[in-house]
Amino acid sequence: MRYAPFAIVAALGLAAVSTMVQGQKRDADIDPRSLQLLAEARAKLDKGERSPAIDALETALAVDPRNRGAFVALGDAARAEGLPGKAVRFYREALELEPDDVAALAGQGDALVQKGAVTKARENLARIKRLCADPCPQAVTLAAVIDKGPPPAVQSAEASPKLPGAVEDAKPQPQ
């Protein structure tokens, strides 16, 4: 009788763990409609049709939010549009589903370099090298992006140097 409360707690803990494991979907368990939409979106991205591809990817995630490939493809599309912050968020979503996704790590590393976060991109490169076999194309590509460095900073109009002979903004004279 003294062990009954401990046995009940252990049984409840075991039930909770088994429920969590069953709740996690693997890639093979993803809704086939979501995978079909992902395939259609990738074909559209290959044709350069970003807007319809993004719509298809968002629909794929509405059908099955565990579709990691859709998050990676959305990250790729955001990066191609020059939106590295948005891309990093999509890659992070993919990595929450599968922390060892090499494609998501590489894409996130590329987006981090675009944002200027080269140190974090190097961390991603180190993880990819630990996960991937020696001639890993993602590691080679990310290393090249890191070596190239972030794009030059965009300079605002206010910060641009004055050109010789440029006319200053005329201020109206009081009359």
TrEMBL record:
It comes from the Bacteria. Pfam families: TPR_16. SUPFAM superfamilies: TPR-like (SSF48452). Residues 148-175 are annotated as: Disordered. Keywords: TPR repeat. InterPro entries: TPR-like_helical_dom_sf (IPR011990), TPR_rpt (IPR019734). TPR repeats lie at residues 68-101. This is Tetratricopeptide repeat protein. It comes from Sphingomonas changnyeongensis. The lineage of its organism: Bacteria, Pseudomonadati, Pseudomonadota, Alphaproteobacteria, Sphingomonadales.
